[in-house]
Amino acid sequence: MAKLRLTKNELKKQKDQLKMFQRYLPTLMLKKQQLQAEIRDVEARIGELRGEKARLDESFKSWIAVFGEKGVFTADILRITRINVREGNIAGVPIPVFEGTEFAIERYDLLKKPLWLDAAVVNIKKALEIDMEARTLEEQQRRLEKELRTTTQRVNLFEKVKIPETKANIKKIQVYLGDQQTAAVVRGKISKRGMERAAG
User: Is the whole-model pTM more than 0.85?
Assistant: First the structure.
């Protein structure tokens, strides 16, 4: 840390810094609260999706046996062609926002395939859509938590280090300048008395 200069210019600089820290601290605290609220919302949505996926998985249990039929449900029947994600912004943090998934469904002969295949395709599409949204939300959460850590560090730096340190510097400079002013007054009085004695 640079040595503190005990001058009026340094006092002004320290006071300006204190004003700046005190002006930015509420903004940082507000950002921290906003990030915490957003993280809670994202966690809640992830929880909803996990619950939905668990219910879907439970419904799949009745389908598991028929999935074993050879040549009926093949990997090429359903595939993801595009995951639609746009860039969003929360409290200055760029985040991915899930907007849906596009699928390609291979045409198949309805007369040659069993009836359950249509329902299976719909359910698997739904499961894949849930997975893609959950992954996007998990990335949102990761980015928001990273920004929250940074913001919390800044809040702590301002609250616990910069503001108290600047206040201490201001006090130290004021005491020093006050002492210098008192000493100057005393020297002036002594000099005045000396001049009065010499003249008289």
Answer: no
